[in-house]
Amino acid sequence: MQSTVFPILFVKVCLTLHGITAVLAELPSPSNIRINSVNMGLVLEWDAPQNHTENITYRAEYRGLVSSNEVVCWNTTAQSCDFTSHLNKFGVYIFQVRAEREGDTSRWMKTGWFVMDEHTTLGPPGVTLVSSGAVIEVSINDPVLRISEFKDVYNHANFNITYWKEGQEEKDKSTKCTPLRKVVLALEPWTRYCVQVWVYTQRFSKHSQPSNVTCESTAKGNDRPWVVALVTFVVMAVAVALLALAFWYCYRVVRFLRPKAKLPEHFTELLDSPCSSILAIQSSPQPEEVYHELRVMPGGTGRKHTDRLAVFESIKTVN
């Protein structure tokens, strides 16, 4: 009996020692595996195995509800892997990572199921303030999602607007909830206000991260009605006076260019129709010309003339 028990104990001890040796030789797995997801982006992060940081690379995978494992990062020394471009905005996924070194691998470290639109963190909205008199217009921009438009995922969203006088946040704070992305706040004149906004989605009852605190000063408030009426009357009176003065100067210029004094009739006719006057002068009958014949006969002064000299001159007399 004792001879039979001894070999059995020996075998158990050997197997136990072999198991301990195998465990000691196994490559440790990454630790502290976690998901960092903001605005529908998703990065898987982890810490390196303790005391095993040399020549270690990592392999990271994911799978959906009905899909098999797909590798996104491999043979990388980085302790993170960005899965964003591989995911769907309404997808449900599980992620895993392991360490590798010279052919040895660690066990897989896995996350739980992650629902993209429910579990992602919404970043802060953008806020712009414009002051006009005693009111401030608040313009809100949706958080920018990495794989979709905000309205396509969270189509029922409200904006919580908190505002207070600068320096009095604790004792003078007001909140307004609205679905509008532009809101006008009626405030006190000549006062500086600070505004902070965050998004609330009815789907999953999610709150976004708060926006940065933005401050703006109001100017003077609305004037009294009689002041507005007086200013309006003065402006209209000045406008009418300037318009009348402009018409007067125009009238003077027109009178200068076209005076009322009448020119003589023949000047007027020449001015009105110079071409027709010239044609009338050219077409009028010419005066009749009168000619007188003068004959010169040789005299007896002792001069001899061999030929008869007859000279005729015509003197033209125009009546």
Walk me through this protein's architecture.
The N and C termini lie far apart (185 Å). This protein is of the alpha+beta class. The chain contains six helices and 19 strands. The longest helix has 33 residues. Among the domains are: 96 residues, Immunoglobulins (Immunoglobulin-like), CATH 2.60.40; 92 residues, Immunoglobulins (Immunoglobulin-like, Sandwich); 30 residues, no CATH class. One of its GO terms (molecular function) is cytokine receptor activity.
Name some characteristics of this structure.
Ig-like_fold; 6 helices; disordered C terminus; Immunoglobulin-like; membrane; 19 strands; disordered N terminus; six-stranded antiparallel sheet; transmembrane; 26% helix; 319 residues; alpha+beta
